[in-house]
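Most newcomers find our protein records easier to grasp once they have seen one. There is nothing in a record beyond a sequence line and a structure line. Getting from the letters to the tokens is the skill we practise here. An example says more than a description, so a record of this kind follows:
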Amino acid sequence: MSLNKKLEDLQKDLEEANVTSGGEAFDTPLAFSKSKKEDEKNSGETAGWKKVKTESKFMTLAKAALLSEVSYKDYKNNTESTQKQKVNRAIREINSRLYKIEGVINQNIKLKTEAGIDSNKYWKSTRSNLHKISEKMQRISERLRRF
């Protein structure tokens, strides 16, 4: 039997198969219910399943990230790396992010110059945001010198 013939036979078998073949249907009486109490009452725990609380992939990645939404206490007590390693990684991360920020600034300066956009044509909120960014950069600069 040729390979093409086998593939055609498999494709026919797959087309004919369906979820309820053989009379075995899944028992999901509350699949579309809106009652939270009914969902809790008929949860998988009554059928012998145990509910396991897992952490989302996002939270796992966030906790693994260097400068994330993790609290300082969790960051400090994390034993995966030494405090010296944490500081060095943080400096490297800051440098990387500042490089990206500098790239965004350079692109937009070029765009502003090419488009002939005058600073007077900025929105009021844009001017306010530029002022806030300038203040933040000054504070960061002072902290960096102390660091």
Observations:
- The mean pLDDT is 76.
- The radius of gyration is 29 Å.
